Structure formats: C-alpha cells, structure tokens
Amino acid sequence: MLALKLALVPAFLAALTMAARLWGPSVAGWLAGLPVVAGPIVLLLALARGQASVASIAAIAASEAFNFAYAWSCRRFSWPLALVAGMSGWFVAALLLTRLPASLAWAVAVACVAVAVSQCGLPRATGQVPATRAGFGELVLRMVAGALLTLAVTSLAASMGATWSGLLSVFPLLGMVLAVSAQREHGPDFVALLMRGMVVGRGSFAAFFAVTAVLLPRYGVWLSFACASAVCIVVHGATRRMLDARRPAQEVSREASLRQPVD
After folding, report:
1. CB 111: neighbour CB atoms within 10 A?
2. Nearest to 10, CA basis, from 36, 30, 29
3. Is 108 part of any domain?
4. Contacts (Cβ under 8 Å, ≥6 apart) of 263
5. Secondary structure of the chain: what % helix, strand, coil (to 5)?
6. How many domains does the chain have?
7. Alpha carbons 104 and 157: distance in angstroms, whole number
8. Domain span at 217
9. Confidence bin at 214 (pLDDT 50/70/90)
10. Is this structure's pTM higher than 0.70?
11. Is 234 a member of any domain?
C-alpha cells in the first residue's frame, strides 16, 4: 500500500500540474476530485479486510473543511499560516466525524452538507488569474512534497483505529500540495478557482465509495469496484457542464484556443 501511494500521489500531482497549465485551475481542481489515489488504496484494504469503510465518504467533509479554511486564510496571510488554518479545520472536522454513527446514510448526508457549504461559502476570484507556468524544479518539489506527506500520513494511519485509518486514507494530500504551490506562485484567486473546481468533482468521489460500500458485501471486491469505477466516470462526466458554468471566461477561451488547429 505504501508503494502504491508513493507511486500514485507524485504521478497524479504531475498530471494535475499539467492540467492546470493547459486548462486552468478549475479543471485541475475538478480532476483532483477523481478517486485516483484513494480508490486503489481502499481496494487494497477491501482485499485485505473484505470491507470498505464509509469513513471515506464522510472524510469529504474534513477535506472541505481544509479547503474552506485555507481558501479564506490565504487571502490575508502567507501560505504557512494558511496551511495551519487549513490543517486546523481538517482536524476539527475529522474529530467531529469520529463521533458520527458508522452508517452510509450519515456519511453521505455529512458529505452533501459539506459540499453545499463549500459551494456557497468558498471565496470567488476577483481578478485576472494568470496561466500557470510551473517549471521543472517546481514540479519536482511538488512531487517530493507529495511523497513525504504520503509517508507521514501512512505511518500515522498504521497506528490508528479503523475510523481514523479510514479518514486518513483520503487525507487531502493533493489539496494541500496544490493549494500551497498555487498560493506561492499565483495568489489567492488561483487557490479559489482550484478549490471551487474540487467541490464540483466531489460527486464522483462520493459516488465511487457509496457504490462500493453498497455492493461489496453482496458481490465481492472486483465486481463492486468495477461498477463503482463505471458510476464514478459517468458522474464525473455529468459534472463537466456544471464546471464550465462556473469557470471564468479566460479559462474557457484558453481551452478553446488549444483546441483550434494550428495552420
């Protein structure tokens, strides 16, 4: 599992960096909602234990708490203080989630409330957001930071109980690295667009784990995860129109220019 995390997290961070460069922060945040990292990890847990934790769905609320606290804090403070605020938000939310009943209905309800709050309450971009120009050194730094965070979180999860292990399995590794690097390079408006894109992408994440939790007890690991992956892709595609409706005009025009044939 550790080897899988160390391979997936840096690779996906590199892919999201390229997505931000080509299509803007909204699309990068939207793609970050896919369970590319958490899905295979929970698959391994299911193979080992024969069950999937509903805490993975409830953990969406903790991730949104991180995003909410970071997005507002970074408008007034530098990234170290914003990171402290974001992590404080995540920890408080995670602590409250451990008090919830371990049921799918509660997990989905909490995740939906958190997403709704973020949809309404996250800050909006107030100015022109520059296109990302992350160089090779910055890309390597992001990948190394992702790998180090993966080691730290995985080591911590190994010593925790089932609930905390479920919450830490979907710890906002990607969101943390992307938020800090986005603020350092482009400022708070870039962070706002990135995290608003993440909110739109949460639906596919929740759908994946909800289908897994429902089907796994009856149909086994592989069929359950295959169905969950198919539903996840369908839901993620359906949210693309919602994403386009929320993207600033400069991102949409940039993407359209990339699609035009070159003479």
Report:
1. 26
2. 36
3. yes
4. none
5. 80, 0, 20
6. 1
7. 21
8. 2-125+133-253
9. confident
10. yes
11. yes
pLDDT digits (tens, 9 = 90+) for 112-136: 899 889 888 888 877 655 555 656 6
Nearest residue to 27 (alpha-carbon basis) of 177, 204, 239, 207? 239
Using alpha carbons, list the distances in angstroms from residue 182 to 13, 25, 137.
12, 9, 15
Q: Report the residue count for the chain.
A: 263
Exposed / middle / buried, residue 51 (Cβ in 10 Å: 0-12, 13-18, 19+): middle
| pLDDT recorded at residue 45 | 66
Candidates 27, 228, 192; CA nearest to 118 is 192
Distance CA 176, CA 179 (A): 5
Contact 25, 194 (CB under 8 A): yes
* Residue carrying the six token digits 């602590």: 95
Question: Can you say whether the dihedral through the CA atoms of 28, 62, 114, 106 is positive or negative?
Answer: positive
d(CA 64, CA 86): 10
Residue type, 85: A
Exposed / middle / buried, residue 217 (Cβ in 10 Å: 0-12, 13-18, 19+): exposed
Spacing of C-alpha 48 from chain mean position: 25
Residue 229 falls inside a structural domain: yes
Q: Both ends of the chain: CA-CA distance in Å?
A: 48
d(CA 36, CA 169): 12
Q: Is residue 262 a part of any domain in this protein?
A: no
Residue 166 has pLDDT above 50, yes or no: yes
Whether residue 16 contacts residue 237, with contact meaning beta carbons closer than 8 Å, is answered with no
For tokens 């911590």, the residue is 156
Q: How many CB atoms lie within 10 A of CB 162?
A: 12
pLDDT computed for residue 136 by the predictor: 64
Task: Please answer whether residues 256 and 210 qualify as being in contact, where contact means their C-beta atoms are separated by less than 8 angstroms.
Answer: no
